[in-house]
Amino acid sequence: MTTSVTVRVPAKVNVQLAVGPARPDGFHDLANVFLAVGLYDEVTVTETDAFSLTCTGPGSDQVPLDRTNLAARAALALAERHGLGDPKVRIHIAKDIPVAGGMAGGSADAAGALVACDALWGTNASRAELLDICAELGSDVPFSLVGGAALGTGRGERLEPLDVGGEFWWVFAVADGGLSTPAVYREFDRLSPDAPAPVASPALLDALRTGDVAALAASVTNDLQPAALSLFPSLKSTLDAGRGAGALAALVSGSGPTTAFLAADEAAARAVASALVASGTCRAARVACSPAQGAVLISG
Ligand SMILES: C[C@](O)(CO)[C@H](O)COP(=O)(O)OP(=O)(O)OC[C@H]1O[C@@H](n2ccc(N)nc2=O)[C@H](O)[C@@H]1O
Ligand SMILES: Nc1ncnc2c1ncn2[C@@H]1O[C@H](COP(=O)(O)OP(=O)(O)OP(=O)(O)O)[C@@H](O)[C@H]1O
After folding, report:
1. pLDDT per residue as tens digits for the range 175-214
2. pLDDT < 50 stretches in the chain
3. Is 225 touching ligand 1 by the criterion CB < 6 Å?
4. Whole-angstrom Cα distance, residue 114 to residue 78?
5. CA-to-CA distance for 273 and 157, rounded, in angstroms?
6. What is the ipTM of this complex?
7. Which residues are designated catalytic?
8. CATH second-level architecture of 4-162+292-299?
């Protein structure tokens, strides 16, 4: 019998993040074009006699180890739906996705824990049930499960898969510090009181479909960028440093403060990463390729 299961889950970048006005429930309607990128967390769940959670890797000291952790909440939600009582499971998160960086690290761990517990417990949840639990856990969580590329509407949880016609190379500059997603949305409301209804850009969807890096660079947008820059002004020098080093496009990743740079190819991405580190405007620079697969079982 399987006693331990490991699932690998990718980070995301939003190549378009169009944000509408705040809804009565406090969320914002989005046209959210997600692209999964090849930076991964690994979530391992092991049968044991009491619930526990551990986390290792960069930034793991900022990750809660109690039941507020999104991975723990995912395990609890699946156990509750299937009448399994308190889950007797040890969850270990090997983190490589920047924490509180706007790359959906917590969401990735939730999707990973869900898929891992489903395999460990033999609950055999359908894709629809898994997606339902993901949407309850957070707006980004369904995308962490499916990966690839998708248009997210509603608060970002309603997904339509998108075709991607080639590879795109990225550099992610990790900032010193984090940004709270609700705080960035609040700042967006302050800066954009008359935001129009969000619409996906046909030019951007075309660029993804054809794998045209120059066209993608010309069409990436993030409506949360002014809000993130307002709360974290030093990100402007990081964006400038990446552009100066030859990035085809530079933008804040999601709610930030990680910044994302699109490069012509892998060699160009590595050159931009070195220049970003040398500029002293970020803590670290990571190179990654997209699209990446969603949550996949890698052992167990
Ligand atoms: C910025 C993005 O990462 C872009 O993909 C997401 O929109 C954020 O998704 P997330 O972190 O999964 O967010 P959730 O856990 O669902 O919500 C956290 C908080 O973010 C704000 N929020 C989130 C999503 C959304 N469409 N509108 C919002 O206003 C709300 O204040 C909410 O209370
Ligand atoms: N498994 C987890 N990994 C990281 N943070 C977690 C986790 N579970 C809960 N959190 C909490 O969530 C906060 C946001 O972390 P996360 O790394 O998910 O941010 P993010 O990448 O900006 O999210 P998003 O891009 O979805 O808005 C952290 O500061 C932490 O307190």
Report:
1. 998 899 999 999 999 999 999 999 999 999 999 999 999 9
2. none
3. no
4. 7
5. 32
6. 0.96
7. 12, 140
8. 2-Layer Sandwich (3.30)
Residue 29 host element (H or E): strand 28-47
For ligand 2, say whether the CB of 63 is within 6 Å of any of its atoms. yes
Q: CA torsion 45→46→52→53, rounded to 10°?
A: -30
Question: pLDDT for 269-289, tens place per residue?
Answer: 999 999 999 999 999 999 999
Q: Which residue has the tokens 């723990």?
A: 72
CATH 3.30.70.890 domain span(s) along the chain: 168-289
Q: Is the CB of 14 under 6 A from ligand 1?
A: yes
Q: Is the CB of 259 under 6 A from ligand 1?
A: no
What stretch(es) of the chain map to CATH 3.30.230.10?
4-162+292-299
Read off the pTM.
0.97
State the distance from the centre of ligand 2 to the C-alpha of 181, rounded, in angstroms: 9
Topology of the domain comprising 168-289: Alpha-Beta Plaits (3.30.70)
Looking at the CA of residue 186, tell me the nearest atom of ligand 1. Answer: 31
Closest approach atom of ligand 1 to CA 107: 12
The pLDDT assigned to 2 comes to: 67
